[in-house]
Design brief:
Elements (H helix, E strand, L loop, with lengths): L1 E4 L11 E5 L2 E5 L8 H5 L14 E3 L5 H4 L2 H6 L5 E5 H32 L10 H8 L2 E4 L4 E5 L2 E7 L7 E9 L2 E7 L22 E5 L10 H18 L3 E4 L5 H11 L10 E4 L2 H12 L6 H12 L6 E3 L3 H6 L7 E5 L9 H8 L6 E4 L8 H6 L4 E4 L2 E4 L3 E4 L9 H8 L8 E4 L3 H15 L3 E3 L5 E3 L7
Parallel strand pairs: 3-4, 4-5, 5-6, 10-11, 11-20, 12-15, 12-16, 13-14, 13-15, 16-19, 20-21
Antiparallel strand pairs: 1-2, 1-22, 2-3, 7-8, 8-9, 9-10, 17-18
Helix pairs in contact: 4-5, 4-8
Length: 468
Amino acid sequence: MKLTVFGAAGEVTGSAHLIEIGGHRVLFDCGLIQGSPKDEARNAEPFPFNPQSLDAVVLSHAHIDHSGRLPLLVKNGFRGKIYTQRASRDLCKIMLKDAAFLNERDVEWENRKRERKGLPLLEPLYSVEDAAATMRQFRAIDYDGEVDIVRGLRIRLRDAGHILGSAIVEIWLSEQGVEKKLVFSGDLGQKNMPILRDPSIVTEADLVLLESTYGDREHRSDVDTLEEIRLAIKAAADAGGNLLIPSFAVGRAQDILYLFGKHYDEWELDRWEIFLDSPMAIEATRVYMEHDDLYDAEARELWKQHKAESLLPNFHWSHTAKQSMKLNNVRSGMIVIAGSGMCTGGRIRHHLKHNLWRRNTHIIFPGFQAQGTPGRAIVDGADFIQLWGETVRVEATVHTINGLSAHADRHGLAEWYGHFEGRPPVLLVHGEATAQEAFAEHLRQTAQAPVKIARLGEVIDLTQVLRW
């Protein structure tokens, strides 16, 4: 009975944790590594375990840094079931196909250059067909019901309040008279976030695998965050240019649209034309619409109103590349919500190319920007960024709205952990080193918690009493 950390150790992407029990092997998450080209090149390295030896995968949620290597796992021989919440399954159908398409396209472009230079051609990480094959292995389950995955390993998914379908995973283990309970937080959301219910409370565990993305900071209050967004929109309107919002296609884009509808009059949004310029975000929004039973009470009420009347009369879906390119000619009065959230790909990069160098452009970053990404460079004050080999000057005004993050902050993470009885040991995952070190010390000081920061490849013997 052991746990091995194979991802999201000292970084916020590439989530993967393996539990072995009674001759069975179950992987929890299989995420894509994101960030710099050097970081992303690691995705092509062989798995540190044999995919064919896995009995099952349990997926906490659909975000690509948790799900994005599943098709590669299947491509390399994994034939077991992939268990996840039903909304996560529906979102993965969109996200994995999109990830495969982008990978195939990028490799095709690169191979054109390599062929002209006489260099060896590259293979895509996985194909659209691999993504489709992967979806056939998904098994959708609901929150709160217990499911036997393999002999001696049982799980229950609880609402994590991070994105639609996101889950905290309770894991019961039993082998040769030894019984343990692990709790994997997945990515924890904040309280009082748009659309979603608050994260579920869990009170019992022998070990907690806890994310720590924002372990070294606290978000602004709900009131301050909404005022920050209002002022950013007003400043953009007063400047007379366009407002760009690089957004994660799943979760953040839907949150923003919800808030725009709720605060339409207060934020004077009638002065703008609003575009959702992301095919994946459009499809994800439709999945959100189909799972309104997972909303909180306020969102359900607003959704009923939306069915009766439009909450955003100046809203436009931008489906095609042609529709997106037309936006490049608009000089003012346009809000564009487009992926990717960290500006590593997608249509937002085209909008940055046409707007980033304009002083009357404003940009709202509503989510975390990982080290090595163009989004992080802009937030950190870079004077120039590179787009398709071209140097683009950064003159736009930048607004960072961390209070809208889908991740709980230091206070939220500590409060969630505080509900556990007996202060079980904590293994910190999914966070950059500085955030993890600060949060580990915070938990030790405020909760007297035994805390350890996960190391890549670390093996933990779960049959022992965990002391650290």
